Amino acid sequence: MGGKIGLPEILIILAIALLIFGPSKLADLGKGLGEGIKNFKSAVKDGDGSQDKKS
């Protein structure tokens, strides 16, 4: 076992998540995750800008 996750493993995980949460909840979870990543990137970008100005 190399420890790498390939496409078949990702598809199995997504299928299990779909069975557990259902399509509507899975869409809401994806939307929330996307917004969280967007906010995180924005905060990191703003943090980098403020560091440059202080130095």
Portion in beta strands: under 5%
Biggest β-sheet description:
none
Roughly how many Å apart are the termini?
47 Å
Instruction: Please bin the fraction of helical residues.
Output: over 70%
Tally of separate helices: 2
Low-confidence stretches: none
Q: Please, what is the oligomeric state?
A: single chain
Structural class: mainly alpha
Q: Give the tally of β-strands.
A: 0
SSE ordering: HH
Kindly report the average pLDDT value. 83
Over all CA atoms, what is the radius of gyration? 18 Å
- CA-based shape: flat
Give your account of this protein's structure:
This protein is an all-alpha fold and 55 residues long. The protein has a domain at 23-55. Helices cover 85% and strands 0% of the residues. It has helices at 7-21, 23-54. Helix 1 crosses helix 2. The longest helix is centred in the last third of the chain and has 32 residues, at 23-54.
How would you summarize this macromolecular structure in one to three sentences?
This protein is an all-alpha fold and 55 residues long.
